[in-house]
């Protein structure tokens, strides 16, 4: 038997297996339930001929990729966001087509792959992602509470002051019992979420330390311990990025834009990248511009020529590229080189 290539179209309850040879001839096709023994049983007759298995990076890929690697298969994690163009213009598409398209991309050598994050480090990264989820939830409750106080009393309160309030403070501000009840519902959620966020941060700090070269991130303007840890956990291995442009693109800091003859013809793939890194560098940019005068001046120059969103993203991109060079070359961040 000749060399074989396999594509697995993974879904929530089933997986479609498609295997072809190097002449693009279909050798095997079958839909199976998402039960590991069934999948391994179907692959076993072809194991010594399989050159690789492509698994689409769906929300539930961990268990399947880990098991296939443990069983000795060479696994590629297909990046669906980067592969959209392969399916553009198709009149018909189903699970069978998708699985064989993955296998065909392996044969051609043009499969766009994602990074298979090390199994041992994955739980701590996912825990830190949960922290960000909780932070966003807490922010929504804080904004809801600020909005309530603002429209019922005309008083504007800073977020950092609001989270220090006590029950008596709300009673003094809100005289209506129903407004007070609503405010306390938000405030109790904020307290619970803050407690969980602190607990996660404590646990991660105990189990995870900044490794080389990521500890150099602490010298970059706007990046503290939490953001440095977020970047380290999301990047994994810096060597997978060839250039600073690749790194900033992965952090979603570059424009997603299509042009022809100098005119905009549409939007690119905005989802191709890491949304957690995107958030981290947006936060770094915010903290840098309010704490460092050279950064503030750069941001103001950009803002005078464009809008706030573009200026913020330009600053985030600059910090992302600086982070790449700082980590790659293992040098201390130099403000004067970046913001002249």
TrEMBL record:
Domain of life: Bacteria
Gene Ontology biological-process entries: DNA transposition
InterPro entries per UniProt: Transp_IS110-like_N, Transpos_IS110, Transposase_20
GO molecular function list: DNA binding; transposase activity
Domain Transposase IS110-like N-terminal residues, every copy: 6-152
Domain Transposase IS116/IS110/IS902 C-terminal: from-to ranges: 216-300
Pfam families, A to Z: DEDD_Tnp_IS110 (PF01548), Transposase_20 (PF02371)
Listed PANTHER family: TRANSPOSASE FOR INSERTION SEQUENCE ELEMENT IS1111A (PTHR33055), TRANSPOSASE-RELATED (PTHR33055:SF15)
Protein name according to UniProt: Uncharacterized protein
């Amino acid at each position: 038997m000749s060399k074989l290539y396999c594509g697995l179209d993974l879904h929530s309850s089933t997986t479609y297996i498609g295997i072809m040879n190097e002449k693009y001839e279909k050798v095997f096709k079958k839909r199976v339930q998402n039960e590991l023994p069934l999948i391994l049983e179907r692959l076993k007759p072809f194991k010594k001929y399989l050159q690789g298995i492509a698994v689409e990076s769906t929300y539930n890929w961990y268990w399947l990729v880990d098991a296939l690697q443990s069983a000795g298969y060479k696994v590629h994690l297909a990046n669906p966001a980067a592969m959209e163009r392969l399916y553009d213009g198709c009149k018909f598409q189903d699970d069978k087509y998708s699985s064989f398209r993955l296998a065909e991309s392996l044969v051609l050598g043009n499969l766009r792959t994602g990074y298979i994050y090390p199994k041992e480090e994955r739980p701590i990264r996912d825990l830190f992602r949960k922290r960000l989820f909780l932070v966003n939830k807490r922010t929504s409750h804080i904004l809801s509470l600020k909005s309530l106080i603002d429209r019922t009393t005309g008083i504007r309160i800073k977020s950092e002051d609001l989270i220090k309030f006590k029950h008596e403070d709300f009673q003094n501000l809100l005289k209506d019992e129903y407004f007070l009840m609503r405010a306390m519902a938000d405030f109790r959620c904020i307290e619970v979420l803050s407690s969980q966020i602190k607990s996660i941060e404590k646990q991660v700090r105990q189990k995870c330390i900044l490794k080389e070269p990521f500890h150099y991130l602490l010298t970059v303007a706007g990046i503290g311990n939490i953001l440095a840890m977020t970047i380290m956990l999301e990047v994994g291995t810096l060597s997978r990025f060839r250039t600073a442009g690749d790194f900033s693109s992965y952090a979603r800091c570059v424009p997603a834009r299509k042009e022809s003859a100098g005119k905009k013809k549409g939007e690119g793939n905005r989802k191709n990248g890491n949304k957690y890194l995107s958030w981290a560098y947006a936060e770094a940019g915010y903290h840098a511009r309010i704490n460092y005068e050279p950064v503030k001046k750069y941001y103001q120059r950009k803002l005078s020529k464009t809008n706030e969103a573009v200026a913020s993203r330009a600053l985030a991109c600059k910090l992302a590229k600086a982070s790449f060079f700082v980590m790659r070359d293992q040098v201390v961040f130099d403000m004067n080189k970046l913001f002249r």
